């Protein structure tokens, strides 16, 4: 296990005093590797909390560039980085938040073969993408590698989060696709209110940390549905 430096002990003190984390858990976070697919609203929100929490290595994947319409909700980017690759913009912000972690970037649209080669290198994968095709691709690749996947989605003022561990008799993202159909509507057509992506992304980060530390009850087998307009949270049990 990777030992913490004195500076890291001070930085993560408020986490270390939690019985469920302690020094062992914080060292486990430092030794962990997480993959974030998509550095839009969800990815920006999740990545900043994972970085600040002390996840030792984050790999960011996104082929897109920063545009002005992103800045309303994608909090790691700013006006000075318009047209910059999102992964590079996010890396600058994350390194400012926490210089003690390693951040890798992949600025391309990955094929399924490339995903299959990449995913086994990680402890947890976060799906922060914005389209059904990528979500289904990630689901297949994570199921094949048996690497936990934390899935999030947000549109308008609504969000949903679930976790897939691919253990025996546990559901996959495909089960959600079957329940809701292949709704290809994006925030470009439907819109999205800025805070909802922050809420969903933060919960994704929390679930990823719980998976890494093997603590608490994750959203495996459950779909958390957030109605931000009416501030109602529902839970749906997923079929096995």
Automatic annotation (TrEMBL):
One Gene Ontology biological process: Mo-molybdopterin cofactor biosynthetic process
UniProt enzyme class: transferase
Pfam families in alphabetical order: ThiF (PF00899)
Keywords of this entry: ATP-binding, Nucleotide-binding, Nucleotidyltransferase, Transferase
Subunit organization: Homodimer. Forms a stable heterotetrameric complex of 2 MoeB and 2 MoaD during adenylation of MoaD.
Family of the protein in this entry: Belongs to the HesA/MoeB/ThiF family.
Protein name: Molybdopterin-synthase adenylyltransferase
Taxonomic classification: Bacteria, Pseudomonadati, Pseudomonadota, Gammaproteobacteria, Pasteurellales
């Amino acid at each position: 296990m990777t030992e913490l430096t004195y500076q890291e002990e001070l930085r993560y003190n408020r986490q270390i005093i939690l019985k469920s984390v302690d020094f062992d858990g914080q060292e486990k976070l430092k030794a962990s590797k997480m993959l974030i697919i998509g550095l839009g609203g969800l990815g920006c929100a999740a990545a900043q909390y994972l970085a600040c929490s002390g996840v030792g290595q984050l790999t960011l994947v996104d082929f897109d560039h920063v545009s002005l319409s992103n800045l309303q909700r994608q909090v790691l980017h700013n006006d000075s980085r318009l047209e910059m690759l999102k992964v590079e913009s996010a890396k600058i912000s994350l390194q400012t938040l926490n210089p003690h972690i390693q951040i890798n970037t992949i600025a391309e649209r990955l094929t399924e073969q490339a995903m299959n080669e990449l995913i086994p290198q990680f402890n947890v994968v976060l799906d922060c993408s914005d389209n059904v095709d990528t979500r289904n691709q990630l689901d297949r690749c994570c199921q094949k590698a048996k690497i936990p996947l934390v899935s999030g989605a947000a549109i308008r003022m609504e969000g949903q989060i679930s976790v897939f561990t691919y253990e025996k008799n546990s559901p996959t993202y495909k089960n959600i696709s079957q329940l809701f159909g292949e709704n290809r509507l994006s925030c470009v057509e439907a819109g999205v209110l800025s805070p909802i992506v922050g809420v969903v992304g933060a919960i994704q980060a929390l679930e990823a940390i719980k998976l890494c530390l093997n603590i608490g009850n994750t959203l495996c087998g459950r779909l958390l549905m957030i109605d931000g307009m009416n501030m109602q949270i529902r839970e749906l049990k997923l079929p096995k």
